[in-house]
Amino acid sequence: MIDDIDRQILDILQENARTPNAEIARQVGMAPSAILERIRKLEERGVIQGYAVRINPDAYGLGLMAYVFVRADERAGALTTAEQMALIPEVQEVHHVAGEDCFLAKVRVRGTRELGELLRDRFGSIETIRSTRSTIVLDTVKETTMLYEPETGGSRG
Amino acid sequence: MIDDIDRQILDILQENARTPNAEIARQVGMAPSAILERIRKLEERGVIQGYAVRINPDAYGLGLMAYVFVRADERAGALTTAEQMALIPEVQEVHHVAGEDCFLAKVRVRGTRELGELLRDRFGSIETIRSTRSTIVLDTVKETTMLYEPETGGSRG
DNA sequence: AATGAAATCGCCTGAGT
DNA sequence: ACTCAGGCGATTTCATT
C-alpha cells in the first residue's frame, strides 16, 4: 500500500510538516517533481489526511485537559451519542471503546469551571448519555501524533 | 499574550499547516513579510510547537489503539515512571492523571498480539509499575488536535 | 512513475515609513 | 511593527523516457 519511498517522505513530514518539497527531494534523492507527485497521491488515497500546527494549549487559553468516560444507551434514529459529542468543539477526540463505559472523549477547556459547564450543558443535553466520569490530567509528559514504524514482515497476515 | 492577528494566523494554520505564507497574508490582509515575522515569534515563544502531518494509522499498519491506565509507586532516583513510558515509540501520549490510576498512556500498535507484547515486554520491564489496565478502542469517531477558541473576557482572572 | 527544463509563485532580506 | 521592492529559490506543469 505504501512503499519505502513513501515512508521516507512521511517520516520527513512527521518531523516537520512544513519541510519544503525541494528539501524532501534532496533527502530522498529524487527530483522535486517526483516528490510532489507522490505526496499528491498520498493525499488522494487518504494516507495523508492533512497538516496540523501544534499549538501550546496554555498559550491558547486551554489549560485544562480531561478524559471523559461516557456511559450511554444507544437508541435508533437521530444522531448517535458519539456523533453528538463529536460536534462539541471542546471535544478533540471521541472513541468507541470496549468495556463497561461505551465512549471515551478527550476534552480541552480553560479551567475546572468550564469543564463543569461543558459536562452540565453540552454532555448533559445529549439524551442518550446515562452518566459521565471525568479524569483530570494533572501533567502531560508526552503528547505526539507521530506514528512509529511497525516491524514489517512478521507472522501476521 | 497572543493578539487577534496571531489567532487568525493560527486558525489558518490549524486548517492546513502547509498554507503558504503569501496565502495567509492575503487572508489576513497584511504583507507576507509581516506574517513571516509573526510566525517566527510564535515559534520562538513556544506558542507554535511544530508542524505535524496527519497520517491514516491504518495505512501505516497501526490499526489498533488503546488507552493504558498505569498504577505505579514512584521511587526517587532514576527516571520516573512517566519518563520511561514516554521513551516507548508506540506510546503517543503519557499523562499524569488525578485519581486512583496514576498515569494514562495512549498507544498505537498493529494488533492485539503487539499490544500484548508491548504490555508484557515494555511496560512490564518498568520497575515502578504495579499494574496496568487497557481499554481497547473499537472505533474512532473524532480525532483532531484543533484547539477551540475559548470565550475571552469572562469572569476569570 | 521519474526526470529535467521552464515559468510561475513564494520566501525572505533590507530599506524605509 | 508594518509595507514595499527585488533577488533568489521553491513549486508546479509538461514533455519525455
TrEMBL record, chains A, B:
Coiled coil: none annotated. Keywords: DNA-binding, Transcription, Transcription regulation. The keyword Nucleus does not apply. The keyword Hydrolase does not apply. One of its GO terms (cellular component) is cytosol. Gene3D superfamilies: 3.30.70.920, Winged helix-like DNA-binding domain superfamily/Winged helix DNA-binding domain. Signal peptide: none annotated. GO terms for biological process: regulation of DNA-templated transcription; response to amino acid. InterPro entries: ArsR-like_HTH, AsnC-type_HTH_dom, Dimeric_a/b-barrel, Tscrpt_reg_AsnC-like, Tscrpt_reg_AsnC/Lrp_C, WH-like_DNA-bd_sf, WH_DNA-bd_sf. Transmembrane segments: none annotated. It comes from the Bacteria. It holds the Pfam family AsnC_trans_reg. GO terms for molecular function: sequence-specific DNA binding. This is Lrp/AsnC family leucine-responsive transcriptional regulator.
